[in-house]
User: Fold these one by one.
Assistant:
Number 1:
Amino acid sequence: MTYQPRPISEQVVVITGASQGIGRETALLLARKGASIVAAARNDMALDTLVSEIRRSGGQAESVVADVAAFEAVEAIADRAIERFGRIDGWVNNAAVSVYARVDGLSADEIERVVQVNLLGQIYGSKVAAKRMQASGRGAIVNVGSALSERAVPLQSVYVATKHGIAGFTEALRLELMETAPGIAVVLILPSSINTPLFDFARSKLGVMPMPVPPVYEPRVVAESIAYALEHGGRDIVVGGWGKLLILGQRLSSSLLDRYMVQGRRLEMQQRTGRPDDPRDNLFEPSTGPGSTRGEFGKGAKPVSVYTHELELHPMRKRALTLVAALAAFVLLRKVAT
């Protein structure tokens, strides 16, 4: 048996980290397509506004206030979904936090918290989802990693470590379910830099507010890729051509990419705004406010990714052009690193 999903309009989908950014945008997009949504996060106000917006548009949605760092809380999300809608067809592991600092500036508590939310939260969600889906033998588990799942950048060491971990865990889970439950798809989403509120709520020890490494894409681009994964399955989906170039650069010559990143402190400076740090963050406490899909970096943000739409979602085309893109990335790296 291979992945045989229900149409999106008939799916019940759980989304963690649904109060802001990618999670919120995905919930709204899927609801417009007719899916029933179970939205989970720590920010109860943002969940309330999300559910209200979906219901006003005629959709179905439930919210669960939960911290994915606790296994019991993740199980409660699944229990609520089954109680309200009778089953779970899709589960999107999206919740994440971040700390911008050098390794020697991180406390043990900060390190543990990022790992608990970003990595353990996705492991817990996948375990709980797989258990509930095995009753019907079908479903889709979608884990949101990052282009940083394959290539590190400075100032986000623990975040990068969790994203690498998510990639490895996703691959292992996919292999296990191929043997025991082949009707359950396990898909890894690898976004480029995205204009979300994560940067408003990330803890910063830089003295200034952090920012995504340009170029930046809008959350809708990721949400559309998640919707595709829920409807078609798949393996890995890179969102944004610049993320793909980063990954190709790492595979072709990691040493050249190292030189490019540290030259003139390029990657460090690209993650700093000129604004003083805002002391609020959502590392240990929930984000505040009614929730938003977009962050403060919309000027120049790309509303679509031609690369993702035309290649990542069409595997045959992607394979045909991979060599060309790889060569282009290699030439570009050599040029900027010399």
Number 2:
Amino acid sequence: MPTINLVTQMATNLVEYGWDARDITTERNALAQVHVHTWQALQNLPESWFSGFDVVVGDEAHGFKANELKGIMERMKSTEHRFGLTGTLDGTATHQMVLEGLFGPIIRSTTTRELIRRGTLAQLEVKVIVLGHSDEDRKALAKSKTYASEVSFLTSCEPRNRFLRNLATSLDGNTILLFHFVERHGKPLHAELKRMNGRPVYFVSGEVEAEVREEIRRIVDRETDALIVASDGTFAQGVDIPSLRNIILAAPGKGRIRLLQSIGRVLRQHDGKDGCTVFDIADDLSWRKRQNHTLRHLNERVRIYNQEGFKYTTYRVALRQRGIIS
């Protein structure tokens, strides 16, 4: 597994599926029929540790490009049955060659679009919201030209953060807001949402213990109107909360895998859930003929939506220092 919270989630799921809990372990030195670990926990173990396994399942197999992951698979020389599972590949020939070398031929059994059509996944609506900033801010950012300065401005931009908070609190149903920077973005958003909102609000980042993350996941799946403010490094990939109805991408980039994994969090079916909505937040800080970095990233995401056959609608919202006008 790629993350510790997915290890905890999988061990819990296996028991729910009917396994005896005594046959499952997350401890490297324990004796059990099934071991569930992060690749980080295994990367420095000797080849002898891997020799007793008949089957290996690599979850989120698109991550098996790293040398550490390849090293683990190469040490499992006597493991005949190898399964790599993922819903997202990056589309490059190099990536495909690496995965085929570790697991065998790639079999694409279906697509997200087909699963939505069949009703296996929830109906998806993507709302692209392009936030327009003042000429003063556009001009100032045009002088710096760097991606880092643009992101620093956006995470601290109070009109933008106010919009995110208002959007999150206006949505019905369980909602997750994904951020990237913990201290300067995630924590302030969470604190303000806790202050202004009467509904349950939870915070998840790498600082939160895996057992607590798992408890939050299970609690929210029993809720009907909760908010999760989570880092994209912890909750964008693999986390299973079928009751989620909305996801706000507060800091989306241009990576195909991260985008599709994030969208996957809301696609699971759930009783009474008739659909799900992705709010893709973009920012127009263009000045004269220069298009800003994050707006160019939106162009990449739109290209992915078109490739995947996802329907999307674009909305433009002008931000002002004392409110929002559309």
Number 3:
Amino acid sequence: MKELYASGKGKDWVPVPIPDFDQDRYASSWTYRGIQFSGKDCNDGDATVYPGRNAQTGDYDASEDTNCNGIWGTVSTESDADDSEEDDFLMPEAAQTYEQLFCSQTPSRGIMSVGDSATAHFRLPPSYITADDLNSTTYSRIIETVLTEVDWPQCSWSTGWGNSTMCPYSPLNVSSIYQRMRDRNLCMHRDYVNAGVNGASVNNLIEDGIVVPSNYSGNMLAIPPRYKVDGPSTVFFSMVGNDICQAHEWGGWTDVDTFAQKALEEMQYLDTVLAPGSHVIIMGLVDGRVLYDTLKDAQHPIGTTYPAFYDYMNCIGISPCWGWMNTNETVRDASSERAFELNAQYQVIIQNNTFDNFDLHYFFPDFAGIVANWTASGGDPHELIEPVDGFHPSQTGNMLLAATYWDWLLVNVPDALGDINPNNEAIQAQFADQGGYGF
């Protein structure tokens, strides 16, 4: 597996867990690309055991939890399930397993996010750069921060599962799309993958012949085989900014023809790694003018204004988004105009193509609308953008995006959310927290 673990982001780099002893692309601990990015592997010595596995085969998890959802064993005819007065879940037959009893009618629909740093929930703690907050414990978790590439996928809008003590402070509870889907069906416990990579874009997501794009992201090759063989899934394709943000001068955005070609190739690739009946929802590029419009009157943690901070970052050439983190309104407007042109290519792909294994949908992330609604309800708009970089959605911003996206899915792609499992209460009664998330 040398090709999966090559050092550096080059042609052979793929963002898979290290270590991963059975090479199924799921980890058993909090490590590089570990359980914060994908469900815990409950047996890292056996490649046939992993989150999301179709357990309705073999012994149906009679003797081992092969899909890591915390549900396994054989139902006794003297069990509590027999004595329950509830009539809204299946009654056991002789030698029936709990996996059969509770999950056969509502199998897991795995969730996966293929995206960028906003998908992975990039966040640099403000205490790292604020002099008043520096103390002996400020950098106590720096190794963990480095291992996660300064990402917080366990708290993200798509695959978040952490609680309020594990995630950055927010007045909102952690409630990701994964958590909401899991609440509908506890059989999909741990069946999530966040393949977000900092710097990923449509332009660099896959190789271009023998040419490796700058900062090649490797996301696509990190998709676990589970998604092809274990049933349909729901995939969020979320490249929301870098085809604009990787430009460092006027006109450096991804050109329309390249974007259209790469996006189509990426959908065609997904068609080879997903099972029939899957759903892919494309999240369009955001209108990044919301950054400057929201923060122009705010103060950065280092003590200066955000416009001055943006100018400084651009001057020394390290801005994460020259086009939108710019005090020049003409540049910001032109960046958004190109983003809208790129988003239009998604619509063309949807109209002109069909895929064997999934249907394709488009969702526009109206973050400006989210900010406006939050402000109208009495919230501070500055709370919705990460204070250190002045670019990524904050924890609160992530949760508001999850809620907006969820409401849209309920109306437009309800099948992507999976069926409600009538056995949820029985699962909780028998298996409690189903082993949690690995801690």
Number 4:
Amino acid sequence: MSDTTLDHGDIGALRQSFGGSVLLEEDAGYEDARGVFNSMIEKRPAIIAQCGAVSDVKAALAFARDAGLEVAVRSGGHSVAGAGLTDGGLVIDMRPMSAVSIDPEARTATVGGGTNWGQLDGAAGEHGLMTPGGRVSTTGVAGLTLGGGSCWLERKYGFACDNLLSVRLVTADGEEVTASEDENPELFWALHGGGGNFGVATELTFRLYALPEATLALLAFDPEAGPEVARTYRDMVDDGAPDELGGGLAYITGPPEPFVPEDLQGKLLFGVLGIYAGGEAEARAALAPIAEHGPKGEMFATMPYPAVNGALDDPPG
């Protein structure tokens, strides 16, 4: 929490040189701008700087440094702990910087620091390509990748950071640098899971893979079957399940979906989620050991990869 009193003359000067928007608590749009995915996080920044260009990032950092303000960097806003907000400080909101450029021949994607996975998935998917990242499409690409980047298909394609080719970032002193295997390699290594401590990522480039479609599978069991099914899932993966298979296990409240039996709707059930990099027949074969337990309901659907990676989206809050 910053105790710094803001000089509105200085804020006016910042606004004049700023390409994006500078929001204070009294401004329209402030409340929406400070909202994050986890509604339990209640922080009130003194300033939200919605950056439209690298020059805005530099200006916001310089203002925060001169004013003695704590800085938080926000991309998708999915940090469970609310790392994209600060009480009384300055938020560098990267969401306006969300351009995506796909090179289908080189199989690379270059995205702005405010891009979310749905935007990247959609653009790459137009070419039948993907890069692995996230489990919810509204998650920010930069924040997830800089934290490592676990994802549904990590067994096949690795974490998001494993497919990171380069990062452009602005350091705390306002210097713009590039990190890759050939340029600033130690910084590049640190950005593979080291978090958002090394600068503000303004552009990231990723390796892409051909994956025009994937299969989503959901299997519902009585809750009592959970421990036995979980052990089978563990042994199945340990004993050489195809790398194309990802997924997870969860106790959930049965949704009112056609594949969920009425006696489990609104009740506790044990669910197995499978995400397969391929078609339904291959997915069913990979999940055969789970199916032997006799699920009370099941659903298999093959669809474009972007749809799979956003199939379990929840609204913010």
